[in-house]
Amino acid sequence: MRAGQSSIYDTIIIGAGWAGAAAARELSSKGRKVLVLEARDRVGGRAKTWSKDGINVDVGCSWIHGYKEGNPARTIAKDLGVVAHLPKAAEGVIYGPDGKSSRTAMRED
Ligand SMILES: Cc1cc2nc3c(=O)[nH]c(=O)nc-3n(C[C@H](O)[C@H](O)[C@H](O)COP(=O)(O)OP(=O)(O)OC[C@H]3O[C@@H](n4cnc5c(N)ncnc54)[C@H](O)[C@@H]3O)c2cc1C
Questions:
Q1: What is residue 68's predicted lDDT score, i.e. its pLDDT?
Q2: pLDDT for res 28
Q3: What is the reported pTM?
Q4: Which atom number of ligand 1 is nearest to the Cα of residue 62?
Q5: Per the domain annotation, does 97 fall within a domain?
Q6: Which end of the chain has fewer beta carbons closer than 10 Å to its terminal beta carbon, N or C?
């Protein structure tokens, strides 16, 4: 906190992971004064992207489950300009305990 800043908040949120960030965003948008306290030296919590030489790899969450069903994360991603899209269905093979393919599945989410 910087000198001269008020220390009176409507809400203090512990943790700047997805839940804390989403709560802070929602409350701030309603005009509430919010303080987010994060123990680590970065925000995101279990959402983290490893980057090297222009290659980005999500080492935490990467899928918005229930994208078509209206998960609010979809709207937030769009508002923030994050590219989110439905991947094409891909064939997956499931192996049984005997090591033989048991059936072919279609992954859609
Ligand atoms: C490898 C992996 C892949 C995943 N893939 C997906 C996926 O594809 N889709 C999906 O929907 N979910 C996925 N998840 C789950 C998803 O990442 C979590 O459900 C989500 O990130 C949890 O958010 P959160 O804000 O509740 O908690 P967290 O992200 O854990 O955030 C909690 C934050 O609080 C901080 N904190 C804790 N204690 C304190 C304290 N006392 N004081 C200050 N700060 C504190 C922590 O440092 C952290 O930053 C995945 C998780 C992992 C690990």
A1: 85
A2: 96
A3: 0.81
A4: 8
A5: no
A6: N
